[in-house]
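#structure-requests
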Amino acid sequence: MSKTKRIACAAAIALSVAGHAAADPIVLTFEGIADRASVNDFYNGGTDSSGRRGTNYGINFSSLSLATIDAEAGGTGNFANEPSANTVVAFLQGNAVTMNVAAGFDTGFSFFYSSKENGFIDVYDGLNGSGNLLASIELDDNIDACAGDPTGEYCRWTPIGVSFAGIARSVDFRGATNNIGFDNITLGSFTPGLPTVPELPGDPDDPGNPGDPGTPGNPAEVPEPATLALTAIGLAAVLAPRRRRQAV
């Protein structure tokens, strides 16, 4: 191969890598994940903790991430007016509360949130909250003076985001656990968006799957024992209005 061709190939590879990191924004609505299931590899070519599959964006969530479906839609969520009905995500308290994106993303990170307390999230250029801190977002409590649909205490969803330089590969949610709900998490933009591509609802062979793109998972699904144990740690109050009215 000539020197000119080698240079051209190297340039093409570099452009390909850069283009992947700077692709169109990805919006995660969490629709299709079963009620009270950990997100896990639902967006990473695998499944959530209940076995449901979503679009493979190369995005992994730690097991301390927990999806919940609005109580009005048959789930256990104590929230209302979510940007993309009917599923949101919250995070349990622990040492590994991360979202990993191995290929990386640039430009910005954003989402809608509903909270009864202050919190923060951090964006890093390494996996699992490692490497350089690229950006932080501070969150304020925001659920006063809002109305449910017809119920749901977590009823105001504030859009927020941040821009940064470099390539991000993980987001650490340790500063935003238990009493904060998230929806429409957006990678590649400092403004949260709505999904442009329908998300897969889960395993089509699952008899409990409604079968429509973007339809939430079966709210009657029994979560895995591990999920139940995690819920008992602290998120039961966040996601179960039937037990306590002070949470998502």
